[in-house]
């Protein structure tokens, strides 16, 4: 319900630009991959930032913006997919603690690209099947919940609110032209 309302609201402001991507729902976390125009992405991040300001009552907690890319020639996902990820019976050892943040993020992105290649071919126009079958058909492509939790807890990525502050206030170094000492001016 939240995402449907959010995407409908985004379409009001950016008509014709649909949202595509995938939402992976874990028992302890959520991973969003959202593809749309930059205005829609900005609107979605603003909404997530407003959720974050609700404190302990917020729908989502400990949110991080991992990557925002511009001018991508094609989308990874042709539609919006949602799937609930249930853990497999055998639990793999959590290796995120022994890796650097860059390695964990790279592993996460590689799995996302593989998942993006798999989903449209397998589920074509029936995204309803995705909710029931993805974690059983391709468990090796599902990003482990430990990885998502690790990335959300690292300080190296920005919260939606921090991301918006950086996005809306780009870095502009001050020019020091008025602070040149007088002695140097006379030699020029």
UniProtKB/TrEMBL annotation:
Alphabetical list of InterPro entries matching this protein: TEX47-like (IPR055308)
Q: Which Pfam families match?
A: TEX47
This chain belongs to which protein, by name? TEX47 protein
Q: Which organism is it from?
A: Nothocercus julius
């Amino acid at each position: 319900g939240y995402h449907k309302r959010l995407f409908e609201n985004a379409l009001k402001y950016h008509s014709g630009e649909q949202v595509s991507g995938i939402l992976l729902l874990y028992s302890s976390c959520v991973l969003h991959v959202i593809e749309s125009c930059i205005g829609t992405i900005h609107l979605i991040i603003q909404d997530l930032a407003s959720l974050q300001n609700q404190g302990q009552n917020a729908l989502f907690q400990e949110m991080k913006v991992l990557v925002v890319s511009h001018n991508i020639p094609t989308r990874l996902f042709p539609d919006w997919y949602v799937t609930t990820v249930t853990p497999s019976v055998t639990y793999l050892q959590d290796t995120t603690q022994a890796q650097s943040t860059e390695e964990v993020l790279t592993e996460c992105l590689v799995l996302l690209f593989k998942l993006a290649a798999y989903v449209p071919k397998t589920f074509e126009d029936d995204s309803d099947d995705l909710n029931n079958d993805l974690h059983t058909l391709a468990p090796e492509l599902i990003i482990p919940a430990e990885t998502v939790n690790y990335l959300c807890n690292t300080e190296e990525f920005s919260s939606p609110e921090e991301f918006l502050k950086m996005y809306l206030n780009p870095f502009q170094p001050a020019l020091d032209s008025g602070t040149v000492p007088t002695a140097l001016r006379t030699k020029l």
